[in-house]
Write a structure and sequence with these properties.
eight-stranded parallel beta barrel, two-stranded antiparallel sheet, 12 strands
Amino acid sequence: MRNPRAFLRPLAVGAPKPSADVPFRPSRMIHFFDPSNEKMAAKVPSIAAKVDIILGNLEDAVKTEKKEAARQGLVDIAKATDFGDTQLWTRVNSLDSPWVLDDLITLVTEIGHKLDVIMVPKVEGAQDIHYIDRILAQLEARAGLDRQILVHAILETAEGVANVEEIAAASPRMQGISLGPADLAASRRMKTTRVGGGHPGYLVRQDPTGEDLAVGRETYQQDLWHYTISRMVDACAMNDILPFYGPFGDIKDVVACEDQFRNAFLLGCVGAWSLHPVQIDIAKRVFSPSPEDVAHAKRVVEAMGDGSGAVMIDGKMEDDASCKQCLVMLDLAKSLAERDPELAAAYDL
């Protein structure tokens, strides 16, 4: 175990000092693109202007023979593009792959000054974060960077979920964690071939109302990911980092996508992955509080004063706990309003 007093010291001579706080910026969607796809790469400047986070993907969605082209493509795009307020992330190859070391060396030394976060797939324990932590410190020192590149872990294995608390606490470099439902389903031997979302076979059935057990019994589809998201959110909250829902693979089913994103938002996630431009607007809508919720939160906070005691608003009791809930809502609304003029007007902030 590291000495707690050493936790915020650089892990390499000349590396930037770790930050005590994760900078919170609007993070409603992490939009993925393949840097080896020329058509997709050409759209990056226009898409970057519409999203909170744009991510150059080097991992599973990139064919083996295009790994090096994707890496170099991301370098070229980053050097040529002004991302403004949009965060630039990358997902490197997994730690058991032959490409990850070259990913880290190339990206940190070539475009480390532009990279905000490196997403690490298939993280299974604190040891994986410690490995990345030390290498990044060495590369940051080599590149002469004046700020740390943060790390984001993906929960994609049963072992990762079992160790999610220690992963979240592994380093001050940790920015957040995403759920990776497809690989996690395979790791758990779940019997679903869907990428995220529910399954019609995962349900509860109404009790029988007569002698015929097959008649008049409604069924209700359940959320396969409720437990994992809840545990991930708790691990992130206790360590002051940010939880995200991952991909929703059925691009055409925008209704179910919105439902899954909203479930994650209500449980505490700050954003989700978008795999297609149609999902950008869904994430922007879902992970932005409604004007009605923001207006209610303002009323509660104004009525509560210092947050102590209790008041009645519209026939409902509001106390210190509900005031804290409303402050969470207002903090998010204010940060989004700073980036989005339309939301600023809708929130009256």
